[in-house]
Known about the structure:
17 helices, 2% strand, globular, Growth Hormone, Chain: A, POT_fam, 501 residues, two-stranded parallel ribbon, transmembrane helix, 3 domains, mainly alpha, single chain, transport
Amino acid sequence: MASSLTKDSVRPGTPGSGKTFFGHPRGLATLFMTEMWERFSYYGMKALLPLYLVAPTGLHLDNATAITIASVYVSLVYLLALPGGWFADRVLGPRKTVALAGLIIMLGHLTLAVPVAGVFYVGLALVALGSGLLKANISTMVGHLYDGPNDPRRDGGFTVFYVGINTGAFAAPLIIGTVGEKVNWHLGFALAALGMALGLAQFLLGTRHLSSRSDIVPTPMSAAEKTSTLRKGLFWLAAAAVFYGAVGLSGHFTLNWAMIPLTVIGLIVPIWVIARIRRDKALDSTEQSRVSAYVWFFVAAAVFWMIYDQGATTLSIFADSSADNSVFGWEFPVSWYQSVNPVMIMAAAPVFAWLWLWLNRRGKEPSTVVKFASGLVLVGASFFVFLIPLSIADGGHKAAALWIVAIYFIQTIGELTLSPVGLSVTTKMAPAKYASQMMGVWFLAVTAGDSFTALLSNPAVGGVNLDKMGFVALEAVLAVLAGVAVWMYRGKVKRLMGDVH
């Protein structure tokens, strides 16, 4: 493994030629801890959010509205990753952008900790903005620590970094969730702010260990571009302020004046971005063919995330009201279910990595298309399993906690067949002109999936009860059919992919 390398095996003058972190550049420890604490704050708040929205001691909203708000929030986090990368590339550079992001996230959680309903949505917006800025850039900084793409430690470094993500995601619901549910909701949000503060502090203290490349603005804006961008930004900000001010003063403002436009943006932007890349005449025929193939993967991923992300909304709210959340008579907080996925990821990811290599050596590794089809079938199967606790609850009984865990387990296996593979195929199929932007495009699949969920659940638009047996069965069938369709057309997709395997 890459972490077995010592500092003596690193060429002098490259990042990591001094003290190491498990054989990796010392800066990896800084980024590992930053991401761990940021994920601690993010997943802790995410675990509490839907429960707080429906709780009588929280905002006491109906289930559909709570799912809409939580889905729009997640879609925004991933939507803002795209301008977050642009901001680092053109304005501040990755290092300063991450520092700014940490500060915004911390302020957002502190705002959520204020027990005033009116500022709650401001806090959500700040956390989404900060998360978008950070998500797009911290992985880039991990790459900067290594001596180019062929550095033998590179893949191992990203594996260690991935462990940091899941460590924070695992611990957050157990700590923040317990405090929020059992003590005080706003104290839980305050703990999320503390987590981000710790991450920001150690990031600032450890910046000296990062690569100097992280300070560079790759394509800085000219003075004229800055002036033009600022002018346009202020214009649209003023237009929005005037419009919403007029709506508010007229007494017609409701939450949907914000929710519906954000939902529509989350659906339109991914389509517009992919269409713009596909129509770019600067791409050669091979690149255009690959983009056409990528559309299949993007749509499949959007369907997957639409169902998968309901594990933190629809499923969590169901467990809160209709499940026996106890083990051997000991009751645990509902938010603890959100720790199931990260601990399973950490346990199963090495197994899957070994399995793909083992199958590859024997010439039997499934293609990327087949892996995506498998992910869709599995996430559909998870909602077929969801029908069992739903039927138990309809019979007037509490569903056993193990049914909920089983759903998360199947979704996790599905995630491992689709998410890492999707990241890999995105980098392989990206046209040279859009090499940096395509990772942001991949994140837009989450935006599209969650925006569609928000559209369906919003009482003013779809008004669908996502936790009812009929619609859960429909989602399960559609996911499985989508997986079968991807598998049936695998030959066509492979031809469009060309020499990418």
